[in-house]
Design brief:
alpha/beta, Four Helix Bundle (Hemerythrin (Met), subunit A), Rossmann fold, 2 domains, 8-stranded mixed β-sheet, 12 helices, binds guanosine-5'-diphosphate, binds magnesium ion
Length: 313
């Protein structure tokens, strides 16, 4: 109970904008009100506006219309209860836990477009794992962007976590190789690899990512055990497209594909419905959400806590 309320309190803070704009709007529309067709149309508009996604919104709205026209519901409060209930049951007990290799180290490859929040999210993940008692190492495979290595190094210094690096402009796969060697030699539990931002349409960069994967796989059996795609929650529909296209570009199936999503910057948007749209658009589980700019601003994604944080006052 104590732990649960702590989680809820933190995610509540991160979802403040969404709650104040989207949910508060819904509540003022529905609480204590009698339902009519115009209100149902307005609910639809607000769900779409909050990035909930067309498919899910239409499913909700059809059900509400049906119930309303059949005379089974006539109050706004009943709609709110229905929405909360639907949202809570949307996520099957999916595998949201971070995978862990049978033999350490577990390798996590982090990818996404420029500015999505990869490096920041890595520091959060590293911090979280370290706080759970795991030994973590970072590999600075973003050799492309000036300052990228230094950015990761600074996080490493602050968190007391080793960072393996090469030189700027060097081969990122070579850094990945060195990082694997070091991770094995030092017996760490997790190796997290930062990579340069890329678009799923940039063939050379996607090939570079494949090369990193194959180097890592040769060094450590089954690696990378997780491929985490970082998506910027403020990017709306673009984030959804990235999820679809990255997972296609990275190849699905055994040993391939994106294994989990890190939805960053949820604190920076009033459209937290994106979490729902991502569920609608892809079968890749959201494993973490980012709710601020410091290493502590991370939450494992828990649907119950998420819905509670959205709807409770
Ligand atoms: N508000 C907020 N900002 C974030 C979050 N995650 C990352 N950022 C910011 O997004 C910007 C880009 O992050 P960075 O990690 O450098 O992105 P990268 O290019 O994908 O490595 C930085 O200014 C971060 O502070 C988050 O969860 N919330
Ligand atoms: Mg970066």
């Amino acid at each position: 109970m104590g732990l649960f309320s702590a989680i809820t309190a933190k995610i509540r803070g991160g979802l403040a904008k969404t709650r104040e704009v989207f949910v508060a709007g819904l509540k003022s529309l529905l609480l204590g009100r009698t339902l009519d067709e115009a209100t149902i149309a307005e609910i639809r508009r607000r769900l779409i506006e909050a990035d909930v996604g067309v498919k899910t919104t239409d499913r909700f709205i059809s059900h509400i219309e049906e119930q309303f026209r059949a005379g089974k519901i006539d109050k706004g409060d009943q709609v709110l209860d229905y929405l909360k209930h639907e949202l809570r049951s949307m996520w099957p007990p999916q595998d949201r836990e971070l995978r862990r290799a049978a033999m350490k180290p577990t390798v996590i490859l982090v990818t996404g477009v420029n500015g999505a929040g990869k490096t920041t999210s890595i520091s959060k993940l590293a911090n979280l794992l370290k706080s759970r008692g795991d030994r973590v190492m970072l590999g600075a495979c973003d050799t492309f962007r000036a300052g990228a290595v230094r950015q990761l190094e600074i996080w490493g210094e602050r968190l007391g976590i080793d960072v393996i690096k090469g030189h700027q402009g060097g081969d990122p796969a070579a850094v990945a190789f060195d990082a694997c060697q070091a991770a094995k030699a030092r017996g760490v539990d997790f190796l997290i690899l930062d990579t340069a931002g890329r678009l799923q349409t940039q063939d050379p960069l996607m090939r570079q990512l494949s090369k990193i994967r194959s180097v890592v796989g040769k060094q450590i059996p089954g690696a990378p055990h997780e491929v985490i795609l970082v998506l910027d929650a403020t990017a709306g529909q673009n984030a959804l497209r990235q999820a679809e296209e990255f997972s296609r570009a990275m190849g699905a199936g055994e040993g391939g594909g994106v294994t989990g999503l890190f939805l960053s910057k949820l604190d920076g948007t009033a459209k937290g419905g994106i979490v729902i749209a991502v569920k609608e658009a892809t079968s890749i589980p959201v494993k973490f959400v980012g709710i601020g700019e410091t290493p502590a601003d991370v939450q494992p994604f828990e649907p119950e806590a998420f819905v509670d944080a959205l709807f409770e006052n």
